[in-house]
Amino acid sequence: MGNTMYSETLQCHLTAFEAALPSYMPRTDGLQATVAEAMTYACTDGGKRIRPLLVMEFCRLCGGDAAAAMPFAMAVEMIHAYSLVHDDLPCMDNSPLRRGRPSTHAKYGETMALLAGDGLLNLAFETMLRAQNRVALPAERVLSAASALADAAGIDGMVGGQVIDLQSEGKAIELSVLEALQEGKTAALLTAACVMGARLAGASAEREEAARAFGYNVGLSFQIVDDILDVTATAEELGKPVGSDADNEKVTYVSLLGLDEARRLAVRRTDAAIAALAVFGDDADSLRRLAEALLTRKH
User: Fold this and answer.
1) Run of H or E residues at 237
2) pTM of the prediction?
């Protein structure tokens, strides 16, 4: 399952993550079998897995054990997956496709998809706080990492970004509002992944701040590139409908700044992310390469 974005180090994290994923999914028997199946469907077969890889790699970079960070990497991906399930719902973006296959509500129905998203949100915290998943880590690191994810997922983070997004549809908004929207909707979770990895390793304040700056700038660059691809890529490349931002009357970096200026801003954000890694020296080359690859991606 090779990926040109990923160095050998990140590829090793990815292989370990995919191998471990089934064991973290809920049981698919009993009376809750359908929702468990929908939760698993939302988490498997697709996605770049950038957020869990960032948890594991920043833990490693800061001197921790990437394997001990695995439950926390899973938790971030569960939160990300739940957000996509809810994003695709008819009451939100009404998207029938996700990663080239039916979205969760298209396959399981709207009510089951809603509950699957709720289930994944809860499962993320169950996973981080389960006794056997935190046995190798000091309690304060576990709490600190879980706290970073809770803050990023709530109304001051991802949920808040979605609120601004919905309230901005069909309206003219300024760049500052768009940045606040995307800081919550996209950058918050990517930033949390980096901070969690640093905290699980017991990193210094300087290293945690570097991790935060990397995640924040990569997150904003990632969203700018997403907006660019929504108008330049094909549905086959993206694995989901293109032009959906315009259809939903959403202000994007492209509609606000134009294609060329949006591209320049994405480059500036990527440069800032790479600059933040200076404290880690050559050991952070995997992340430098990832940031550059995310800037030039086609899907």
Assistant:
1) helix 235-238
2) 0.94
Ramachandran angles phi, psi of 169, nearest 5° = -60, 130
CA Rg value for the chain? 18
Tokens linked to 286: 């995997």
Measured CA to CA, the distance from residue 172 to residue 190 in angstroms comes to 27
Mapped onto helix, strand or coil, the DSSP state of residue 30 is coil
Cα separation, 82 vs 104, whole angstroms: 10
Convert the pLDDT of each residue in 83-113 to its tens digit.
999 999 999 988 988 888 999 999 999 999 9
Handedness of CA 80, 140, 183, 295 (dihedral sign): negative
Distance between CA 197 and CA 211 in Å, rounded?
8
User: Exposed, middle or buried: residue 11 (CB in 10 Å: 0-12, 13-18, 19+)?
Assistant: middle
Q: What is the DSSP letter of 26?
A: P
CATH 3.40.50.10540, domain 8-295, yes or no? no
Residues contacting residue 12 through CB under 8 Å, at least 6 positions apart: none
- What is the DSSP code (8-state) at residue 27? P
In the numeric block, which tokens belong to residue 136? 């190798």
pLDDT at position 241, please?
65
- Distance (Å, rounded) from C-alpha 232 to C-alpha 77? 27
For residue 236, what is the enclosing H or E element? helix 235-238
